[in-house]
Amino acid sequence: MQNKKKEHPKEKFKLHPRNAHRERYDFKKLIITSPELEPFVKSNIYGDESIDFFDPKAVRMLNTALLKHFYNIKHWNIPPDYLCPPIPGRADYIHHMADLLGSSNYGEIPRGDKVNCLDVGVGANCVYPIIGTTEYAWSFIGTDIDPVAIESAKQIIKLNPSLKGKIELRLQENPKDIFYGIFKHEERFDLTISNPPFYASAEEAEAEALRKLKNLKNKRPDKTVLNFGGKNNELWCEGGGSKFIREMIRESKRFSTSCFWFSTLVSKQSHLKTAYELLKTSKASMVKTIPMGQGNKSSRILAWTYLTHKERKAWQEQRWKKE
């Protein structure tokens, strides 16, 4: 028996105004772009077209269709069990960082390949660079500690002409380092982005996945199925996200004049206090906290710069001013 049809808002107002995914998924249009999606689209109990978000294959095919439809990515694939990230949330991060750059450029978002971005933990999916190059024509350097992830991202770039020459990939050979070994002498980044591992152990990651599945399906699942995937280094690290962010702030001080805006996603509100204290100790000149939301999930971007007002103005004149 079909339940009474749910009323849905036309737009997802928590998402950024420029986010291409503010409206509900139009599966008819997505299937025209990617016919392979059709077998995964079914009517749910409310009579709405949807996919089974508990099925990793369905989630991966949805991502493939979204990237093809909105970002002209004709070939996208990732190795089994690697993170298949929700595209709308990734797009939100990029758009908010574009606004942050614009706020330092008289309200005008800097565009073009002179804007150099560093994606810490690019992953096998290469999604942040895909969105940033497509929406704003920025250039990207993506780093990862996993050679398999780097090779997967390389294949995505190789198979999509729109990405060639716009994204460089660098293997971080020391898993304990973030910026060390990546920043080259006299290299400048206009922004860094990062989506740190959430959990402090594999056990914690699995327990949280089980909790979410139980809440969503109202019964205890027989086994953990990560519908969005994720290898160990993508989901957890020693000390969890809080320690990762603290280390990132410490290393960022060493490169204080090499980047305009450092940034990271912060999954838990409770992690902010320690980060603020460390940024104060590190003498960051400006700190911004940008709220983000998708569905019932809330998050935030923490961004900081060490540049003085004079240095920020000089940076803007030298790198972003239109010729």
Question: Terminal Cα separation, in Å?
Answer: 64 Å
CATH class: Alpha Beta
CATH architectural designation:
3-Layer(aba) Sandwich
Amount of beta strand: 15-25%
* The CATH topology: Rossmann fold
User: Major β-sheet, in short?
Assistant: 7 strands, mixed
Describe this structure as you would to a colleague.
With 323 residues, this protein is of the alpha/beta class. The protein has one domain (89-320): Vaccinia Virus protein VP39 (Rossmann fold), CATH 3.40.50.150. The protein has helices at residues 27-33, 56-71, 87-103, 127-136, 147-159, 202-217, 232-235, 240-254, 272-281, 309-320, and strands spanning 42-43, 49-50, 116-120, 139-144, 167-171, 189-194, 259-266, 286-294, 297-305. The chain has a seven-stranded mixed β-sheet, with helices on both faces. Strand 3, helix 4 and strand 4 (139-144) form a beta-alpha-beta unit. The longest helix is centred in the N-terminal third of the chain and has 17 residues, at 87-103. The chain is globular.
